[in-house]
Amino acid sequence: MAPLNVxxxxxxxxxxxxxxxxxxxxxxxxxxxAAFNRTKSKALKFAELAGLPEEKVYDDxxxxxxxxxxxxxxxxxxxxxxxxxxxxxxGAGKPILLEKPIAATMAxxxxxxxxxxxxxxxxxxxxxxxxxxxxxxxxxxxEKIGPIVAFTHNxxxxxxxxxxxxxxxxxxxPEHIGGFLSDGGVHQLALVxxxxxxxxxxxxxxxxxxxxxxxxxxxxxxxxMKDSDIIGTFTYGSAFGATDKSVFLKIYGRNGTVVxxxxxxxxxxxxVRYGSSxxxxxxxEVHDVPLDDTFGVNAEFQNFREAVTKKDKKLFRSTxxxxxHHLACVAAFLESSDKNGDHVKVETI
Length: 349
Prior knowledge:
By secondary structure, the protein is α/β, with parallel strands linked by helices. It has two domains: 4-129 and 295-318, Rossmann fold (3-Layer(aba) Sandwich); 130-293 and 328-345, Dihydrodipicolinate Reductase, domain 2. It has helices at residues 13-25, 40-50, 61-65, 82-92, 106-117, 133-145, 169-172, 180-183, 185-196, 297-309, 320-338, and strands at residues 4-9, 30-36, 57-58, 72-75, 96-99, 123-126, 148-158, 199-207, 218-225, 231-240, 246-253, 256-261, 269-274, 285-288, 344-345. The strands form two sheets. It has a nine-stranded mixed beta sheet, covered by helices on one side. A six-stranded parallel beta sheet has the order 3-2-1-4-5-6, with helices on both faces. The longest helix has 19 residues, at 320-338. The two termini are 37 Å apart.
């Protein structure tokens, strides 16, 4: 089967550092054939890396969307542009993969879901954490420690002054709700909800620790899950002073505990202990997780390709409806904090 021709909309940091290398690593399945940036000089720089001729470089969105050679659109623009770009893609009949979060506001997110539901072409949200290998390792272990009763998710770390992503103006002056809480938090929520289920309601407090974040940048919350009695805590933020980087999800069952440990991205592990009490506690088992240098991006792209080539949007896991829930959780955190930690239901669709 011939490679799927990709048009890249937005040629910034992640497009250059991860999306393009992924496409090049999977050259039998993908071929970048066009690029867009409102600042054409940036698109030209990307084109050099991608081996594109200048005539395939656009500073007009409609130009790349309607390029007859482009079979799939990969969009990496600020979230406030997602809705309008989806409309253009649908008008051209082109499948599109949108960078997370799904939108800048819940109203926009709801409209993206509505549009995606109305057409047969695949429309996906690039939430690569849904494809982390640790999920496949942990899921069968959860069945052995059940029933699940609670969890603790913690993703915290020190402020990095040389963070290349923080240097982008749209992150420093975010139009998307929650700023870094939605930009990075939806990844964390993807991991939690994939293993524990959807969140029904939250009680949360948020704060802005760093002026460079542009808005609130940490959240501490308690949550109650949908369709189960599971309760948990969700803590996220990397705006603190000197401390260890910590990323883990600890899931408590009546018959044991599973810990997904991602603090060291190069050495992810899943740990489990069995037993219904302290007296019956087994020795800890450590399950190695296959190392994925792309952190789920390659698997995500392959899943989207499958949906496009088989013309079946249901094959793609990271749908707008899934991503809507993750952003809705962030919106609930913010609303709860505005109400001094009051219980808030997560918006549904």
